[in-house]
Amino acid sequence: MKEFRSPAGDIYLGSIADGLRDVIHSFDASSLILIADDHTAAYCVPLLNEFTGSAPLITIPSGESNKTLESAQQIWSALLNAGVDRSSLVLNVGGGMITDLGGFAASCFQRGIRFGHIPTSLLAMADAAIGGKTGVNFHGYKNYLGRFEIPAFIWIDPTFLKTLPQNERRDGLTEVIKHAIISGGPLWDLMAKARDANDIDWLTVLELNTPVKQKIVETDPYEKGVRKTLNFGHTIGHALESYYMQSGQDISHGKAVALGMLAEARIASQTNLLGNEDFQAIIGLIERLLSPFELTLPPAGQLDHWLSGDKKKSKGRIGYSLPERIGLCRWDLAVEQEIVEESLNWLSTQVRR
After folding, report:
1. Which of 135, 163, 191 is the last residue of a domain?
2. CATH label of the domain that carries residue 348
3. Could you read off the pLDDT of 114-131 as tens digits, one per residue?
4. Which of 43, 124, 130, 208 has the most CB atoms lying inside 10 A of its own CB?
5. Burial profile 49-75: b = 16 or more Cβ within 10 angstroms, e = fewer
6. Are residues 185 and 150 in the same domain?
7. Which of 116, 142, 163 is the last residue of a domain?
8. Distance (Å, whole) CA 249 – CA 74
9. Do both 159 and 172 map to the same domain?
10. 304-343 pLDDT, tens per residue?
11. pLDDT tens across 140-155, in order?
12. By residue range, what is the domain housing residue 113?
């Protein structure tokens, strides 16, 4: 078991058998309550029973469409009925939807009670559970209501990855690749050598990925500067998610962000920020490991509504986070609408080929 100590949140990487019970007991909580979705309640929570005892469980239907205020209200009602107080500890067991939703609910209840995360998806292990972002979707917009609240602890056990189908592991790999692009170094080198998504040692990946996200969050906990680099791929990615969600169609966060990174790398290339060699390396890596081209994209104009409502918008304009080279990303960059549309049209040609 490895420990990553930081003001951005203490993270334990390894088997839950190596000390989860001791970590939970260290908080001397008046009560412990678990939050999970229906999938993780069935497949992951039973693996925790040895360490959490008879702690009550709040179960939310799975899926991003359930990351809502209504689900938060369900959690608040259950916490109230369970007699939870400010000395209690909430344990969120699940992927990014549950860590976002459970963290948000706990951070608001009685003006904030302690919560820990046990991420069970690669996406949550690599990104969503780390950094203290919590939230719910609102009127179709991704994560529009939320708080920054550092979890009491995070325990990442790669064993849970065995419960995931291949497509969900690939979704999580999207955020690892994002971190590799903006940080470069050993994580990029490891990803660049991988032949496909099956050619990956997940423990090694998480050992390299965790400090990348943790260091950025520690430097800029409230996203005033360098933490905005973590939004690479997410401006267009979130617009795609919102579009498909409101259209009654399904697109995973990982696939949307993979497509977003492709489009935003194209923007960086077209604005002469990103050189062609690094552009081709980024595009090649995403295509090889993520295989994102499996759907029909909407016309560029149909994303305008969702882009214009992006929560990162400031003073009437969207600030994009774009790579200048592998290992260096800039943020708050204004981009002409014509270039955004060109990148989306280019993306459509890549999908259709």
Report:
1. 163
2. 1.20.1090.10
3. 999 999 999 999 999 999
4. 130
5. eebbeebebbbbebebebbbeebbebb
6. no
7. 163
8. 25
9. no
10. 888 887 666 666 689 999 999 999 999 999 999 999 999 9
11. 888 999 999 999 999 9
12. 2-163
